[in-house]
């Protein structure tokens, strides 16, 4: 697991998300003063409400805490022990806890769920100690990660989200942090959970979504998962996911006032319902459908056919049909071998009424080889063909003169 996550991090460093804005923000009223909504598959942004401004994340911080801890855990079912240092100072700070006690035997899985569902600072401290040696070292790793992800408006001072003037992020940055975390299936399982009972049956916790349903009867059925937060300075914050026609969206909202109102969850529900009611999927290319055809130079393969590696689709307003979209593919006529898989060889751009809706990078799927001997033979063949044509022309002209 650790090797897989490290590979994902490296890939993300080279292929940063470049968002494409939808024509307008969703027409939905929010309690939150800040919001950012985008489609993870297409990177299209559907709601941008002060997303680049700094906020206090509160317990959304624990998304980063848990995802980084998972990178160091080989077996989530391994048993570990709670120590006094994991609990020190939490009562005085007014931190939320999962309810672990000193000497308790728990699994890593218990700590992961305890950190996200009841927002347990005790679980976060234990994860930091067990995976990085201390909370300070995990905080250092948190700041190193956001630097590698080029999230320049995020800085963390603790693993719990307790208020600190130098502990901040933006809705956009937090969306990217959650996107990174969701590359790990184990994280997504915890993030999406509604209720969890610990391995020895000592604790049962409900997520912020489930608490909203239980207390206010909120319909959370269309929300995949969420992590909430609250401090007096941050007010209500929420990072959530929702799926529309197989496209998973990330929504981050911040500063919804009213600690016990569940206004942050209400905002997520309102956004999700608006998407379901007003947007639909348009399939641009089916998997394996041809998109472009190339001549290949310096290779005896001669031709390369680019086919969609997966179904390519976009989520657009229901007023827009497939016939309203204009396709534009910008590619070179020739590819020059050798080339390695992963190189960009073109761009698909989708327009609606001259406005860019979606941009898709066409990436070479396989290596195109060309050895030195192939190039010698290739240019030798060209020389023979061209030389032969010139000879024919010369002979023809001589005979024509006679």
What report would you give on this structure?
This protein is α+β, with helices and mostly antiparallel strands and 402 residues long. It has three domains: 2-281, Beta-lactamase (3-Layer(aba) Sandwich); 286-363, Peptidoglycan synthesis regulatory factor (PBP3), Domain 2 (Sandwich), CATH 2.60.410.10; 377-402. It contains eleven helices and 18 strands. The strands form six sheets. The protein has a six-stranded mixed beta sheet with strand order 1-3-2-10-9-8. Strands 13-12-16 form a three-stranded mixed beta sheet, with no helix packed on it. A three-stranded antiparallel beta sheet has the order 15-17-18, with no helix packed on it. The longest helix has 30 residues, at 372-401. The chain is elongated. Mean pLDDT is 89; it is low at 1-18.
List keywords for this structure.
402 residues; alpha+beta; Beta-lactamase; Peptidoglycan synthesis regulatory factor (PBP3), Domain 2; six-stranded mixed sheet; three-stranded mixed sheet; 11 helices; elongated; disordered N terminus
In brief, what are we looking at here?
With 402 residues, this protein is of the alpha+beta class. The protein is built from 11 helices and 18 strands.
The largest pleated sheet is described as: 6 strands, mixed
**From the 3D coordinates, which CATH architecture of the largest domain would you assign?**
3-Layer(aba) Sandwich
Q: Terminal Cα separation, in Å?
A: 81 Å
Using only C-alpha atoms, the radius of gyration works out to 27 Å
Helicity range of the residues? Answer: 25-40%
């Amino acid at each position: 697991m650790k090797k897989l996550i490290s590979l994902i991090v490296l890939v993300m460093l080279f292929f940063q998300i470049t968002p494409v804005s939808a024509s307008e923000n969703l027409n939905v009223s929010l309690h939150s003063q800040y919001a950012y909504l985008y489609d993870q598959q297409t990177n299209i942004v559907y709601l941008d409400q002060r997303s680049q401004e700094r906020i206090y994340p509160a317990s959304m911080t624990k998304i980063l805490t848990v995802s980084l801890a998972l990178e160091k855990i080989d077996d989530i079912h391994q048993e570990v022990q709670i120590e006094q240092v994991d609990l020190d100072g939490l009562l005085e700070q007014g931190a939320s806890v999962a309810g672990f006690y000193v000497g308790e035997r728990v699994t890593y899985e218990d700590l992961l769920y305890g950190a996200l569902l009841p927002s347990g600072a005790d679980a976060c401290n234990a994860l930091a100690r067990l995976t990085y040696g201390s909370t300070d070292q995990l905080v250092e790793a948190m700041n190193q990660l956001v630097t590698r992800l080029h999230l320049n408006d995020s800085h963390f001072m603790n693993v719990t989200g307790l208020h600190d003037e130098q502990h901040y992020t933006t809705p956009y940055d937090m969306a990217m942090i959650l996107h990174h975390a969701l590359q790990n299936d184990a994280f997504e399982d915890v993030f999406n959970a509604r209720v969890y009972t610990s391995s020895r049956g000592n604790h049962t916790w409900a997520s912020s979504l489930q608490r909203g349903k239980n207390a206010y009867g909120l319909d959370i059925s269309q929300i995949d998962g969420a992590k909430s937060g609250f401090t007096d300075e941050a007010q209500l914050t929420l990072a959530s996911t929702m799926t529309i026609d197989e496209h998973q969206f990330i929504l981050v909202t911040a500063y919804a006032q009213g600690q016990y109102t569940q206004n942050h969850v209400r905002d997520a529900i309102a956004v999700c319902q608006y998407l379901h009611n007003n947007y639909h999927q348009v399939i641009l290319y089916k998997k394996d459908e041809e998109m472009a055809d190339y001549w290949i130079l310096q290779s005896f393969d001669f031709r390369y056919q680019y086919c969609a590696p997966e179904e390519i689709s976009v989520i657009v307003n229901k007023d827009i049909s497939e016939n309203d979209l204009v396709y534009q593919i910008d590619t070179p006529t020739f590819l020059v071998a050798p080339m390695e898989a992963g190189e960009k060889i073109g761009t698909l751009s989708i327009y609606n009424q001259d406005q860019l809706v979606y941009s898709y990078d066409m990436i070479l799927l396989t290596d195109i080889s060309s050895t030195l001997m192939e190039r010698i033979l290739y240019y030798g063949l060209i020389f023979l063909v061209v030389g032969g044509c010139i000879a024919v022309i010369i002979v023809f002209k001589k005979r024509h003169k006679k």
